[in-house]
Amino acid sequence: MESSNAHVTVTASSGAAVVLTIDGALDAVSSSAAGESLREAVDSLPPPSLVVVDLSTVGFFAAAGVHLLAEVANACTRRGLRMRLVVAPESVVARVVRIARLDDLPTYPTLADALHN
């Protein structure tokens, strides 16, 4: 099975927030590379900063992606950071988030909602 790479873009937003946009497929191979970017961004933030992980353009979300998000959520909790997810409603990612019980994390349908709520 051929793997699509996930691309992670890290952008600062107004206030004490960082947005990490993941585009593509989060599979076993790409989750490792995406994880490096996510961990680096989380490690650089002071509490109580906001970390928003935008998954709205992820087309494939494997177990490795679930593990990565759980790991980042735990790192945020340990560091006193707030974490939110952007997930397109009714998407495959939304279903996986529910099944994996990651919906305990605040989840929003748009980036604007995640940043302003």
Automatic annotation (TrEMBL):
Q: Name one GO molecular function term.
A: anti-sigma factor antagonist activity
Pfam annotation, one family: STAS
SUPFAM superfamilies registered for this protein in UniProt: SpoIIaa-like
The residues covered by the STAS domain are: 18-117
Instruction: Note the superkingdom of the native organism.
Output: Bacteria
Record's protein name = Anti-anti-sigma factor
